[in-house]
Write a structure and sequence with these properties.
Length: 361
């Protein structure tokens, strides 16, 4: 158990972590709030630093046939491999090592769904590779239909599913074009049947021009041509939070949401004002803080999370990912251009999944 974004009148603690009895022994907190007392008793898994670890990466990406060309950095010629050698070290505890077999055993007959944009695809494919490398002989049944990709680890009957959605709220075809409906989540009927849900949305809210996947915005009965995007993001996310509060049986379904995934297109943010992007980066930032702090989107997300009454765990990966200016594909991808938005597989996504694993096991 980690974060409980629960507000129950008396305590709402934004400490996302597990209780550690000693630096090496961390016990998951039982359902409920995390009480912050002697600081050495509390471990926030999301606060720490990157340390070199010769045993990394967790798997050989060339042996994982499930990586999209956007993320497959080694296949597309990335010459430096140092970025693969870092392990996330929380300040007051250790993350358990990922054990794919115990994960599959625990989730026998269950369905785990990632819902969101290409950052969700990124984390999804890393989890598939981590599980595949733990049990390489196990056949995977691959099914796909529209926005859904469903990989079932046979024998265990564990399905890891991707539901692609740019905004979480609906986009529908109307008479005069595509409508982004900020108050509506029709797909929720499929989502709420799952055992674990991992949400994410942000990347598409600021897109305009040909990359904008809608023509109008609808709020209730009002149709708008456009609006201040941060407000649209907050309204859409609030609809999601209301959906969780009213429609999800959180006794059956565990709900997670990713923090905002940072980009690295401006060296000034990491004290290299002459670098226009992440292309020259080969090592993480040493330390625990990123010079520019959190973006406005993280604060907006936090505001909405504060309105949840059901338990939702935040995978608060923003800061630890900010430190990884070296972990993007940059030019080593199969689509061309410099990409400092997505992340190489293997790499940082494996840590996001280790954190998800820690919260689930
Ligand atoms: C935890 O801290 C609170 C306030 O700082 C204190 O009142 C309480 O006694 C402490 N509990 C334990 C178990 O130390
Ligand atoms: C596999 O799990 C699904 C739910 O994910 C369930 O509907 C199905 O009956 C299971 N199949 C077997 C053979 O256990
Ligand atoms: C995923 O595939 C499994 C195995 O065929 C199936 O039982 C399950 O219903 C599928 N889930 C979704 C959401 O399509
Ligand atoms: C990182 O910082 C620590 C102290 O904060 C220092 O001991 C260590 O040598 C630094 N590592 C690198 C690679 O600069
Ligand atoms: C994540 O953690 C940071 C620092 O630990 C905190 O400032 C922030 O509010 C948290 N939430 C989000 C949504 O990033």
């Amino acid at each position: 158990m980690g974060v409980e974004m629960r507000i129950d009148g008396c305590i709402s603690v934004a400490i996302f972590g597990i209780i550690c009895l000693s630096p090496c022994l961390c016990l998951a907190n039982v359902e409920g709030d995390v009480y912050q007392n002697a600081s050495n008793l509390i471990c926030n898994r999301y606060e720490g630093r990157w340390v070199r670890d010769e045993s990394y990466p967790l798997y050989d990406s060339s042996k994982c046939p499930h990586i999209n060309r956007v993320f497959d950095c080694l296949k597309y010629g990335r010459p430096d491999h140092e970025y693969l050698k870092y392990r996330w070290q929380p300040h007051n505890c250790d993350l358990p090592r990922f054990d794919g077999r115990s994960f599959l055993t625990k989730f026998k007959g269950k369905q785990i769904m990632f819902i969101g944009d290409s950052i969700s695809v990124n984390q999804y494919q890393s989890l598939i590779c981590m599980l595949h490398s733990s049990v390489p002989e196990l056949p995977i049944l691959e099914q796909g239909r529209g926005h859904i990709t469903n990989y079932t680890f046979q024998g265990y009957n564990v399905s890891v599913i991707l539901f692609f959605s740019t905004h979480l709220v609906d986009i529908v075809n109307g008479k005069n074009g595509r409508i982004l409906k900020l108050n509506s989540i029709e797909n929720g009927e499929i989502w709420k049947k799952m055992d674990v849900l991992v949400f994410n949305t942000w990347l598409w809210w600021y897109r305009s021009g040909p990359k904008q996947p809608w023509d109008y915005i609808q709020i209730g009965n009002k149709i708008l041509k456009n609006m201040y995007r941060m407000n649209a993001f907050k309204l859409g996310l609030t609809t999601w939070a209301k959906w969780v509060n009213t429609k999800v049986d959180t006794e059956k379904t565990k709900v997670f949401i990713q923090g905002i995934s940072p980009k690295h297109y401006s060296g000034a943010q990491w004290n290299k004002p002459n670098e226009p992007n992440c292309a020259k980066e080969t090592v993480p930032i040493n330390g625990s803080t990123y010079p520019t702090g959190l973006s406005q989107a993280s604060y907006a997300l936090q505001d909405v999370l504060n309105t949840l009454i059901k338990p939702v765990q935040l995978l608060n990966i923003t800061i630890l990912s900010q430190l990884r200016k070296d972990a993007h594909p940059s030019s080593y991808n199969g689509i061309g251009g410099i990409d400092c938005t997505h992340w190489c597989i293997a790499g940082l996504m494996d840590t996001w999944n280790q954190l998800l694993y820690t919260a689930l096991m």
